[in-house]
Amino acid sequence: MDLKEKLVSSFIAFENNVDIDSPVHDIRSEAMKTFETTGFPSKKEEAWKYTSLNSVLKHDYSVFPNQENALEYRDIKKYFIHDIDTYKIVFIDGKYSSHLSQTTHDGIDVCLMSSALNKPKYRLIIENYFNKVATKDSLASLNTAFSSEGAYVHIPKNKLVDKPIQIIHFSTENESALMLQPRNLIVVDENSHVQIIERHQSLTDNPVLTNSVTEIFANKRAIIDYYKVQNDNKNASIIDSTFVNQKDQSHCLVHTFTFGGKLTRNNLNFYQNGERLDSTMKGITIIGEKQHIDHNTLVHHIEPNCESHQDYKGIYGDSATGVFNGKVVVEKLAQKTNAFQSNNNILLSDKASINTKPQLEIFADDVKCSHGCTIGQLDESALFYMKQRGIPEKEAKALLMFAFSNNILNSVKIPELKQRITKLIATKLGVDIGFDL
């Protein structure tokens, strides 16, 4: 039995264990029909032309973990941003860990998707927002079909959340191979502001495949800073699909930092359903060995007088492979649009490769749109200059690569997170640099 057949048959058992009166029961059933019809994507599809899932689909994944595994905070503290006080929503092998979490219902809701799906007081939010912006592609539909647990965040109007929210998913060695499908719903109402940090971390060498879906709704004048930290081990793979729906004058910024994992696919989609709003997508990728990273982005400009900014930097060593497929669509009514897209890459090895395809589809005539990409090596003259002044070659290369990614780091608004990412970059580059960018 291949993985698709296993998932389809497992859905029957899953349905028997969830409430058939749930407001999303019919949504789940329709989503499974979509996945059953389409199956997993292949390289025959244009959006997956440079990424094959064959290497991660061959394992016999456990869909429902058999037992819970308790973790002690001292053993996993290093994976948290522990320098500051935060709300925490922590999952272990797909199950909520109450003793590691710190949730709240004091004026805001920072809690569990399972609670939101099953309790009447959340029904209005679920009916208005759940699965309303996620696309109906095969992997998003698969996640929808099995949606039962994840993070639920609702920030009512006129709220400045007093501290960041951390969403962390741990996987352990309880299963020889594990598949996780977390579902997150983030709703930020008018004039509210929130900062969120998301991380998926495997604590085992066993194969782990995560198919994650996050829906984000930024209502009028809402501000959302969302940070994804991807630094998993060599046998962990993730397909992360994030969908952002924005209303008038909202600002949403998503940073993606990718340093680890066997195969990483980031689908990041922004839909601008309002005027005078701003969408920002930034990322730093540093990978080596045989790692594979695929950034697939979309910004859909629907209304006039809006802006979008995309800036992705990639550093690839050894036999690593990178993909950037960025698309900006400007509808006919979206006049006065200002859209910027950039993808710059450095190859440190003759065996490393990057496939980059920035795209613009413009149907309006009064716009300012630009896109571009670069692929190159480190500046030999700059490297020579630094070596002549007594800087060892390894540190000189690291400094150049730090400078290359500096503008992305400068836009991180949580100082402790910026410091952590700087250290991760230094570790990835194999140097100890005694300053923070």
Question: How would you summarize this macromolecular structure in one to three sentences?
Answer:
With about 425 residues, this protein is α/β, with parallel strands linked by helices. The chain has ten helices and 20 strands. The protein has helices at about 5-15, 25-40, 55, 75, 115-120, 125-130, 140-145, 380-390, 395-410, 415-430, and strands spanning about 85-90, 95, 110, 150-155, 165-170, 180, 185-190, 195-200, 210-220, 225-230, 235-245, 250-260, 265-270, 280-285, 290-300, 305-315, 320-330, 340-345, 355-360, 370-375.
Topology:
Elements: H1 3-17, H2 25-38, H3 54-57, H4 73-76, E1 87-92, E2 95-96, E3 109-112, H5 113-118, H6 123-129, H7 138-145, E4 151-155, E5 165-171, E6 178-180, E7 183-188, E8 193-202, E9 208-218, E10 223-230, E11 236-246, E12 251-258, E13 263-272, E14 278-287, E15 292-301, E16 307-316, E17 321-330, E18 338-347, E19 353-362, E20 368-376, H8 380-388, H9 393-409, H10 415-429
Parallel strand pairs: 1-5, 4-7, 5-8, 6-9, 7-9, 8-10, 9-11, 10-12, 11-13, 12-14, 13-15, 14-16, 15-17, 16-18, 17-19, 18-20
Antiparallel strand pairs: 1-2, 3-4
- Estimate nothing, just give the exact number of structural domains: 2
Average pLDDT taken over every residue = 93
- Taken from the alpha-carbon principal axes, the silhouette is globular
Largest sheet: 10 strands, mixed
Percent range for helical residues?
Answer: 10-25%
CA-based gyration radius: 21 Å
Count of runs of 4 or more consecutive helical residues: 10
In what range is the share of β-strand residues? 35-45%
Topology, number of strands: 20
Judged by helices, strands and strand pairing, the structural class is alpha/beta
- Low-pLDDT parts are none
Write the H/E string, N to C.
Answer: HHHHEEEHHHEEEEEEEEEEEEEEEEEHHH
For the termini, the CA-CA separation is 50 Å
Strands ordered across the widest β-sheet: 2-1-5-8-10-12-14-16-18-20
